[in-house]
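Figure S4 source data
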Amino acid sequence: MEFSEGDRAPEALLRATEELYREVALELTAATERLRQGELGEVKTAMQAVKDLRAAFQMVMDERTRVDKLRKQVAGVAGGAGELDFAAARSEIGRRLARLRDAGAGG
C-alpha cells in the first residue's frame, strides 16, 4: 500500500488513535478516583480501562511507525537510502585521484 504526499489518511488515523488513547486514560483516571473513594464496584471498570489503554497505546505506536515509514517513502529515503556520506565520497575521490596519479603518463 502506498500513499501519495497529498494523502493524509495515515495521519488522520494516528490522530484518531491518539484521541482514543486520551479518552481511555481519562476513563482510567476517573475509575481510579472512584476506587479511592471506596467504590469497589469500579475494580472491573478500572481493569478494563487498563486493558483498553494498553491496546490504544499499542495502536498509537503502530500508527506512528507506519506514518514515519510512509513519510520516508514519500521523501525517497526509505531505509536510510538517499543520505549523503561526505566522508565516503571524499575517500572515493581520493582513491580515484591516486589511481590516476599512479597511472601517470603510461596510459
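Figure S5 source data
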Amino acid sequence: MGAKKRTHKGWKFALYVTGDTAISDSAISSLEQICNSYLGKDYAVEVIDLLVHPELAHQHQILAVPTVIRTYPLPERRVIGDLSRTEQVVAFLELPAQQAQTTSRPERPVPPK
C-alpha cells in the first residue's frame, strides 16, 4: 500500500526579522495575536532572522524589516514594517473578515423582546 499524502489547507507566513530585538519580538507577538484571532490554529509562521541568513534578504527581495509574507494561500501578500495596526495587517494579508471563534467567553443568548 502506498502512503497517503496529507494536504495542508492552513495559512502559511514567513516573518523576516533582524536579531533578537524589541522590534523583532513585537513583530512576532503581533503576528501571532492576529493569526490566533483571525485564523484560530490553522496557520504556521516561519521566523527568519536575516542576521543568521543574510543571503535570504536578496533572494526573497526583503527591503526592510520586519516583513511578513503570506506564502499560502497564493498569491503572496506582504506587509512591511510595524505589525501593530491589526486592521491594516489583516487587510493587506487578506485574512478572513470574520474573526476566529475563541473559547474564552461563550456567547450569551439574547432574550427576545
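The chain has one domain: 11-93. Confidence is low (pLDDT under 50) at residues 1-8, 102-107.
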